Amino acid sequence: MTELNALARQPETIDYSAPSQYRFSILQLPKVQFFTTACNIPGISMGEAVFPTPYKDIPLLPDKVTYENLEVTFLVDEKLENYIELHDWITAIGFPEDREQFKKFRSANADRRPDSVTRSNPSDSVKPRTPDSAMYSDATLTILTNKNNPILNIAFSNVYPVSISGLNYTNDASDTQYLSAQATFQYQLYKFEPLG
Is residue 41 a contact partner of residue 154, using CB atoms and an 8 Å limit? Predict the structure, then answer.
């Protein structure tokens, strides 16, 4: 039953969420994970559904959820290793040269996708393994308290990259500015998993 008493509805925690208190991990991209400087919790929307009438369209509850993209910004290391591992993943999915790119990437990364049980409940059944599961990865955004204790996981299922920004080299910079890149990912869905 919903509590109607205003005093009983006061929040128990009055600390705010700090934008720098997080950890991002993605199994397929360990070097991107280490250098991540920004990440988002994507927005979610329901769209619109209406019942047309001659006078006014009546809004109805829609039945499809749309997720925004997962955006990750990371510093690029000196040898471009983290940029290249993401570039290789995208080109393997699109195989611009030949179909062997897809096959080689899939066989080389088959061990990066665990066949373990689901994250949230160890008693759940084992995830089905498919030959193309190496083309996807799971990712986790962990939200931390102000004392760096993990309190919440946002678990992304079946993540894959759709774009990566370019790198711009220039001699015009007066101070040392390190290169960063932004990667955009699609995914099946995400869930909130409270910790503790």
Answer: yes
Q: What's at 151, amino acid-wise?
A: I
List pLDDT tens digits, range 108-146: 766 655 543 344 444 444 454 455 667 888 999 999 998
**101 within 8 A of 95, measured Cβ to Cβ:** yes
> Residues 66-79: pLDDT tens digits?
999 999 999 999 99
pTM exceeds 0.90 for this model: no
Burial group, residue 145, by CB count within 10 angstroms (0-12, 13-18, 19+): middle
Q: Write out residues in the chain with pLDDT < 50, as ranges.
A: 115-126, 128-129
Locate 168 and state its tokens. Answer: 């711009």
